[in-house]
Amino acid sequence: MSRYQLFRRRIAPIAFGLAIVLLARDACNKEQRTHTTIVFDVGKHHVEDLAAELFVDGTYVANFHNAGFTGTVKFDASLPSDYGELRIDLDVGNTIKHEVRHFQATDGGTVIVPLAELATP
User: In 3D, which of 22, 70, 21, 81 has the Cα closest to residue 46?
Assistant: First the structure.
């Protein structure tokens, strides 16, 4: 039996079955995720730059970046758990302020992160 025949008859079906199992597992796990909207509220202050990193259970999940805004800005997130952490860098003029905020999300809900006092120059 040649290597090609060995691959075609034995290894390829196993690899195909494994791929099907991994796709099914991924589809099932997507239903268990928490979908939420995160809203950053800086009030009436003008922010030059906002950069936020989203962590869940110490694992990096997503990042968000927005430049030059006043008021609120939002983004949608899909989390593997209900509890998360936001590491925020806020540029207000000549200073960059760092903040870490912890939150609990609900599926289909909104998490409001008030940053008005942090956004004061």
Answer: 70
What does the domain layout of the chain look like in residue ranges?
1-32, 34-114
Pick the CATH number of 34-114 from 1.10.12, 1.10.260, 1.20.1050, 2.60.40: 2.60.40
- Residue appearing with tokens 């207000």: 92
Measured at the CA of 87, the angle between CA 37 and CA 54, to 5 degrees, comes to: 45
- Which residue's structure tokens are 């120059």? 121
- Residue 51, pLDDT > 80, answer yes
- N residues, the chain: 121
Q: Indicate the pTM of the whole model.
A: 0.72
